[in-house]
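Margin note: ligand = 9MJ.
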Amino acid sequence: MTPPPIQQELDQLKETINRHNHQYYVLDDPQVPDSEYDRLLHRLQQLEAESPELITADSPSQRVGATPLSAFKQVAHEVPMLSLDNAFDEQQLRDFDRRVRDRLGDETVVNVRYACEPKLDGIAASLLYQDGILVRGATRGDGSTGEDITQNVRTIPSIPLKLLGSGYPSTLEVRGEIYMPHDGFEKLNARARERDEKVFVNPRNAAAGSLRQLDSKVTAQRSLEMCCYSAGWIDGGELPGQHDEILKQFQQWGFRINAEMQVVDGIGACIDYYHQLAAKRDSLPYDIDGIVFKVNSLELQRDLGFVTRAPRWAIAHKFPAQEEITQVLDVEFQVGRTGAITPVARLEPVFVGGVTVSNATLHNMDEIQRLDLMSGDYVTIRRAGDVIPKVVAVLKERRTDEVRAIKMPDGCPVCHSPIERAEGEVVARCTGGLVCEAQRKEAIKHFASRKALDIDGLGDKLVEQLVDEGLIQSVSDLFHLQAEALAALERMGEKSALNLLVAIEASKQTSFPRFLYSLGIREVGEATALSLANNFGTLDALLVSDEESLQEVPDVGPIVAHHIVEFMHNESNLQIIAQLRESGLSWPDIEVKEKASLPLQGQTWVLTGTLELMPRNEAKQQLQTLGAKVAGSVSKKTDCVVAGPGAGSKLTKAQDLGVEVIDEVAFVQRLERYAEA
Ligand code: 9MJ
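Resulting structure:
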């Protein structure tokens, strides 16, 4: 009997939507624009509203909408969910391999084949499928019993409600890690901050908090993903005999697996993999806390078995921890180049994220209030990648009577000028300007820095020394330094003094954008300086500009325009600029192109993934020279995205929005074409 037409259309719609869903959320490769997807989903919902008796649990319309629970049910795992033993150094990894080989007892096996995978820092979970339909989702819990989070896992778009393809066992339990990628985490916390709600300390806690929601509508709003890495209970069918083949089979059935997974021969290659991934760790779009090595053959895995809760055939090699607990010894207030007063926590030194940390920025007084931090508190410090260490949480239960409240000083801690906090601003500022020694020092450091005049050998410490010894007061004094005075400085000597003078002399030949940037005007970064230079061509033209004409420059809004005019109208700034020019600082003027003649005028470009043919900075500069704005995120206003290998969510978003995407080769070809034109 042929099914009625409505049933046929429903089945077809569900299959098509599931396929598009998989392309989008699992393969990061959408095949249709959002509008088409929405149209299909809308049609499905319409048919289901007309015939509610035809709604099935695997329908893509049924991801969200279940009624909130009052509590999670317990789930007994049919096959225990194992945890992993840890190795913290290379020797422990080699010991693991030695134990594996000893146990396998075959003298001829020198190199065991291992599957290497990043260890995702999320929540371990199990998905149970009966005849290809998702019937249960559970947390790992203690390994024997977890919690039933079926309603919540159903909202995660990379988890199939119905398996794709065929050939799956009638009972299939797939296990993996549910995690929150960095961009979703940042967005979630940004929204929480806006609403004055509690922020999550790290993506792992955010993922756990999102799965612990009794109302799955809340979970549905969080960006969670699941990456699968092992099988559990299997019945009524078989899986391949190698770990990597199982994962590839999972992928065929619609699951996301980790793209970094590799099979290698022997522990030496595992160690190489560890180092490769450690170097890549900071550029991955999600948190990992180590690498997992698994004996690839399931037969050998069975021979090896497990002890208590951990398999003998796998081990996790952990990276240095990115979070540690330490004590805030004191809070000091630093004065920045623009007078911004930043509270900084002095910490009991602690090893975290691979380095010893003894200071952490606290940003501003609002942040201290939000954390409810007091001097003397024990805190969690997080240092991920190259970022500045941050205090992410206060351990209230360890607070003693010895703690002291943190108060913003009444006057600048350096020059004692009054401190002001403009209405609506979170940052408090010293009003001393160039009277303030701290601001002067920072201005000179900025002037000499790599992206500014790039004075070789004039580092932060030396600037401090020069100001402290009274050899310089402002940037223009740099060009009148004398060799003898320099050589007399502590840790200096004649040779270093001469080298420094040569570097200062060389820095006099600069470019207009560099000079503008070096002045340290508030909110004028490298890109804005370049834009200003290209638009005004000469310093004299810029000096007579007003806020209105400044705002015609790409990248310049009313606030930046105001800062520029204020800077250019300040007598002491003008005096310093005049002195610098008198000392011989010079640059070629820039020929101002007609606005329309810049080929990418008014366009916004985004660079994502790894660029292999040129440094990212250069790509950015070339685009800006052609008139384009280079943005950090993709939106409807983006004109083109250049995507290199490893591009993630920005690429997906561009495809989703129908924004043009080109690879680096095409990008370079275009640059060449524009250069010829
Ligand atoms: C994580 N967390 O990424 C396992 N894991 O395998 C990977 N965890 C695991 N494998 C067996 N990639 C038990 C746990």
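Residues 5-25 form the longest helix (21 residues).
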